[in-house]
Amino acid sequence: MERAAVFDVDGTLVDTNHLHVTTWWEALRQAGHRVPMHAVHRAVGLGSDDLVAHLLGEDRDRYQDEEISAAHKALYGQYFDRLPPLPDAGRLLHRLHEDGWAVVLATSAGGPELAALRRAIDADDAITATASADDVSAGKPAPEPVEHALELAGAPADHSVFVGDTVWDMRAGTRAGVRCVGVLCGGIPRADLVAAGAEVVYDDPAHLLAALPESPFA
User: Fold this and answer.
1) Is 149 helix (H, G, I), strand (E, B) or coil?
2) Confidence band of 133 (pLDDT split at 50, 70, 90)
3) Which domain of life, per UniProt (predicted)?
4) H or E stretch including 103?
């Protein structure tokens, strides 16, 4: 029976969360909104539409949503040629692939952004498929992105593990019925990840790789 190793990307495999914080903050500022950076950080991991709604509320001027998202995309795009992978991200994916896991990325990124992230990870030969938020009706924390990743891998939830760095990841994985592994490299506290459903938490991909024999991937 196929088993899936599903990975979030931003903040989990590539060190981009604080780039997102800065560029979302600037995009919101340009639209006339003063949102604290700590609030933006907590929202990273949501899809663009959900992130704007989470930060500005339901009574916001929705006509600005597209403008804000476009500004963020343009600002963040300046970093595409130098996105930094987290330690041993590519080695971790290769190791799991060699161990017989179907490695699937579950991300809200698409197009040039996803291509830049995959270049940073440098493990395309180990990646079975990519599940984008564009492929589902609801992004994280809804379970659909993880469920779609499992469909692409042809793996049942009880034979699969989801690795992510945000509470949105942990909630999505828990709702999809998979075992959830958290990583601290996205900047979210351990206690928050555990409260949201993480079975175990590691520092970063390198820590998880070193601990594989005792991890949910054992």
Assistant:
1) helix
2) confident
3) Bacteria
4) strand 102-107
DSSP state of 83: P
Strand intervals (E) in 112-195: 127-132, 161-164, 179-183
Whether residue 32 has pLDDT greater than 90? yes
* Mean pLDDT to the nearest integer, 60-81: 96
- Find all residues with CB under 8 Å of 132, minimum gap 6, and list them: 107, 108, 109, 110, 114
pLDDT at site 66: 95
Distance CA 185, CA 109 (A): 18
Residue 205's identity, in one-letter code, is P
The angle formed by the CA atoms of residues 117, 121 and 89, to the nearest 5 degrees, is 130
* Amino acid code (one letter) for 32: G
Helix axes 111-121, 65-77, angle to 10 degrees: 30
- In angstroms, the Cα distances linking 79 to 17, 93, 155, 173, 207 are 12, 23, 34, 29, 26
Q: Quick check: bond before 85 cis, omega within 30? A: no
